[in-house]
Every structure is written in structure tokens, then in C-alpha cells.
Amino acid sequence: MSYKIYEINEDLIDVMPQEIRDLQFRATWNNPKRGVMDLPYSKELIEEHSLCAGCPESMALRYILASLPAPEDTIIINSTGCTSLVFPHIALHTVHSLFGNQNAVASGIKRVLEWRFPDKVKDVVVLAGDGATVDIGLDCTLQSFFRQEKITTICFDNEVYANTGGQESGLTVKGHVFKMAPKGKQWDKVPFWQIAIDSGCHYVARLSVSSPKRVETVIKKAIYVAREVGPTYVHLYTPCILEIGLNSDDGLDEMRQRDKERFAFFEYVSEPAKEVIERKKEEGLL
Amino acid sequence: MQTILEALTYNRAGQRVVSPDYLLFEAPRTKHFMTGSEAVKETGKKASVDASVSYPITPQSEAAHLIGELWVEGYVGVYFRGESEFGVMSEIAGCAMAGARTITTTSGPGTLRAFENFPMWAGTRIPVQLVLMARGVNSPLSIQPDNLEVGFLLDTGCMIWYAENAQDLFNMILAGFMVAEQPDVHVPVITVVDGFFVSHTREAIMLPPDDIALPPYNPYKAPMPVIDAEVPPGRFLRDPFVMKSNYISYATHASWQWEVRSAIERSRPYAKHYLRGLIEEFGDPTAELVFVACGTAAAQAKEAVRLLEEEGIKARVVKLKTIRPFPIEELKQAVKDAKYIFVPEFNVVGWLEREVRRYLYGVSEAEIIGAPRVAGGMTMPAEVIVKEVLKLTGKEVKHVL
């Protein structure tokens, strides 16, 4: 529809909580040029996240929500894990369904919205952790890529099951000691960005969230390509500072260090995706 | 004809929209000869279905193929094959959340593969319709009829209806959409038939014409906001109860589970109307020997009543059309003068017997006998039912088994 669904009945404005009024008057709607540079000046679409102090995943969520080109027409699909602590705080349409079925739910929603609203653009964005995306949800994630679903999948990779207390995941680095891997992980970190390319994603990026502006560009490219071409995948390093024994103010340094090694910026763009990205650049939207 | 909607509107497939009552009870019907799976297709053609997701498993595959044909023919908006039943039931949930009238089908191990989704459907308050063609779930592998899986589904928060034959199934699926989509109900409905016995058996069925259909689903009447960014989202800001460890959160989750069960209770008057009662009675109303059954077991019990008549024994059948909600008052009334209640079933555990005992406890003096029970693909010839009765009366069995 439009940002009008966020407008409060004027008779009720006085009694509505401040954060709801702010959503109407100070959030950035109907402006595809919105981005992370608005963060200090506008109402964010996430209210008082409930993650740990200094959690890089909370930074990622704030940058992503600030970068959505059309938040008023965006559906967010979450999964279980630390992200499920956040979805109730997001002002948009969000769904939490089960652990690992996020890309399946997103596929159903996207297809029905395309059919119900053939003349409108409705972006469907999946936000889930590494356990949800690559372990328990691997089947649904990959199959949505194979089927060329026009959805954007964003994986918050903290290399561990954090919400359940720090267990090894498929994206844990070989040798790292976590619960359920008391001798250290016995096998390699799954290179899921590469698997996403091989499985049919048209835009794939791997990065940490150390640079807000770079996160914005990647998210916008991923969403624009998903709208027109097919599945896109963004792999973000959002370290769990709690589980790797860092302090609240250490997250950024940790990411900057990994930027030089296993999370060095990597981007893949298919031929049809290149055309979309070039066009969006010409339109001044990237 | 007066019940046709005043303004003749058309659905997306170009069919004339008529009232559910007209389609179910008044429209002229013609006789066809088809399987239960084909009856599912006929329902899809008349139900203004928006979306369906499929996955192969015997014996439901044919019904799922035929819904695919409806998609090609333009009767269904969205259709595809999912990756597994777990994926399919999640995909169909997404379709329903986005505002679609949805139907899907599964059987046996597929039901169990999908299981985590069913309480999720109920808690999400989506009126998905699952046509379940029951089949064995045991190991070693079997694809044969057996309805053990229905016993597992009873407390998922979904309505469970049970159709006896293809005609029942056709009517029930149409009624299922109408009941499940009531704003004060709005929970999923699982419409069960026995695999093969109904899915693969050809029988006479009366169908209304193809150019009329149910009114389309209106997602804006749903009790939860439809996930389409056309309506304000549910607001959970400040202190959301999700994943929180405090008593407000516990109380909210507990009351929501009660509310889902209450929604099933609120379906009773609608189901009574569209199904013409939650039970069907067959046979001599004065008989003190009663078979309480559903599905194919009810059909076979009706045959047994005829055979027993020849033996000079009066018997009758109380067929349960709904298991959730359970027709408690109807059953109590129907068996108030019963002396013997037999519960014939197609599974080894006797889940229906347990239900019958639970609701008749302290109410009926009748002896409740959980027999006969067949499973693993066995059929239930009427003679087997008769034999159980004759065992009780001490009579010799005349019929050859």
C-alpha cells in the first residue's frame, strides 16, 4: 500500500506512545534514497532491540532496516535464535514461524503477494542466523534458491548457536571449541556464499558489518536484484562477542580484523543482475 | 435460486460467485463416477482456491497432481512442488499469511515430516485446509491404508474432520473453507479420508455445475493482520511477550493456546450448518447395539448393520463427521439408550475408542468395545464386524470369513 498504514487516526494521536507517533512523523517512508546516513536524524524501524549490549547483530539489523528501499512494502521473515528476540521490535510486517522454515514461508508469501498485487512491488526479506540458514534450514534455504524465488536472504553469521548457549554450528571455524564440539570443530566452516552462487543466487555478498555504508549498498543491490531477477544472498559476519569472550565495545575491532581474512569483502553478480545494478546506479538509487 | 448473491460477481477464474448454501445445498447436481482424488479436483474447481503447494507421497499424489491441472486451467492462482512436507506446510502457511485461500494434501509419513507446522498453523490462526489421505506410518515401510496418524493430530489445535467417501469429501472440503475462515474460528482444518479406500476408489458422486464457485476468501476479515503490507502490522513494541521469561509472557502463551481450542469450539454452529450436523445416524433408531465410527469404518459398519439385520440383531451406526470439535452432545444423545458400543477402527491403538470412552465416561452405562481393529493395509469386511458382535452374543458365525 503505502506508508499511510503507519498513519495514526488523528483523534488518537495524543494517546499513542511516543515511538508510534515517531514512526509516523520521523521515520523515512516513501524514499528509496533512505539509508544509514539517516540513522542519527530519523526514527528507526527497530525499537529498543533486546540483544546484548554492543552486539554486532544489533548493528546489522539497524543498518539493514535503515537501508530497505521500500520499508512500507517490505515483509520481514525471521527465524529462531537471537534474531527471534528482535523481530517483535521491528515496526514492519514480520513473521516468525519455525526454526529453519524461513525461506519456505518467504516463498509462499512472495508468490501470493505477486499474484494478489501484480502491479505492486512487495519486497520479501529473510533475516536469520547461521544455524537457521545453513544447518536446520539448509534444505528450505537452498530449495528457495533452486526455485528462483524472488526473495533476499540475509544470514547473520556469528559462527555459533548463540541464543541456546554457544554450541558449534556448520559455520563455526574448524578447530574452534564450543559446546557440542568439546574437542574443537572437526570440519571446515561451510562456504555458504559459494554454495549460494552454485545454487542459483544472482547476487551474493560476504562481508562483516564494520562499514555501515557498505552494508547499505549491499542490501540495496540484493533487494533490487531479487525484485526483478531472482534469489539473492547476503552473508554478514556479526560476531557473538559474548561467546568468543569479548567486551561490549570490542565488536567493531573483531569485525575489522576478520575483514582482512575470512570475511574479506566478496561479491558475485550474475549477468542479469549486473543490468539491474547498472540501471539503479543510473537512477541514482545505488 | 434466491440465495444466489444479489450482485452476481465473478471470481478470478471467471466463475459466478454463489453463496455457500446455494453451492452446497441448492445448486442442481449431476451424477459423475470418480475417485476421491478426482473429487478433490472438483472441489478445487468450485472453491475459488488461491494457492496450493504439493509434494509426492502415495496415496495423496494424484489429488495433488489434479490441483496442479486446476492451476494450468486458471482455477488456482499459485501452485508449485515444495521440497518436502515440512517445506510444503511452511510454504502453504506463507501463502495463507499473505492472504490466500489455501489447500494442500499429504499422507502418512508426510504428515509426520510436516508435523511441527500444524501447531504453528493453529497458533498463527491461518485457515489452511489440509486434505489428509491416511496411510500407515510404521516401519518397515508400508504405503497401505491405516489411520494411526490421525491420533497424533488430535491435539495440534487444528480442526479434524473425517469424510466417509468421495461425496462426503467433496462436500466437506467446500464446507471446510467456509467454517475455517469464519473470523471467530480462523484455525486450520484437516479433512481426513482413508487412503486408497476413498482416494483410489471410483464411486458415484453428485456435483454442482462448473461455472459457479464459493465466494473468494477475504483476508481482511481475519482476526490477525494479513502479512501483505496493506494493513498496519501487529504492534509488539515496548515489552513484547515473545521469548520472554516473565509471568505476563507465560500467561499470554497459555491463554493463546486456550484461545485456539476455544476457536475450535466456536466452529460448532458453523460446522453443524454446513455439514448438516456433526454426526450422521444410520439404522434402527431403537437398536441398543451401536457402532461409533468415522470414515471407511463407518461405511463398513453400515454394511454390518444390514448383515446383522439378517441375523435378527438390531444395530445402528453413529458416524462422527468431526473429531475436533468432538461431537460430545450429539454422541451422548445418540447413545443414551445403547447397551453395547463398538468402535471399529483402522489402527492398532484405538484412538477413536479412547475419545469415545473419554466423552461417555460417567454418562453412558453401555459397554464400550474397541473392536474390530485392523491396520497395516488390512481391509475391514463387514463380516469381521459382524463376527465381533456375534462373539458377544455367543451366536455362531454364519458368514464365511
Mean pLDDT of chain A: 96
- What is the quaternary state of this protein? heterodimer
Number of helices of chain B: 14
Protein chain pair with the most extensive contact, residues per chain: A-B, 45 and 42 residues
Assign a percent range to the helix content of chain A. Answer: 25-40%
By CATH's scheme, which homologous superfamily of chain A applies? Thiamin diphosphate (ThDP)-binding fold, Pyr/PP domains
* CATH architecture term of chain A: 3-Layer(aba) Sandwich
Q: What is the H/E string of chain A?
A: HHEEHEHHEHEHEHEH
Count of alpha/pi helices of chain A: 9
Number of strands of chain B: 16
Which spans of chain B of ≥5 residues are poorly predicted at pLDDT below 50? 1-6
Calculate the terminal CA-CA distance of chain A, rounded to whole Å. Answer: 24 Å
Radius of gyration of chain B: 22 Å
Strand order of the largest sheet of chain A: 2-1-3-4-6-5-7
Proportion of strand residues of chain A: 5-15%
Overall form of chain A: globular
Cα distance spanning the termini of chain B:
51 Å
Describe this protein with a few key phrases:
A: 286 residues, Rossmann fold, B: alpha/beta, 2 domains, seven-stranded mixed sheet, five-stranded mixed sheet, globular
Brief overview, please?
The complex is a heterodimer of chains A (286) and B (401). With 286 residues, chain A is α/β, with parallel strands linked by helices. Chain A has nine helices and seven strands, in the order ααββαβααβαβαβαβα.
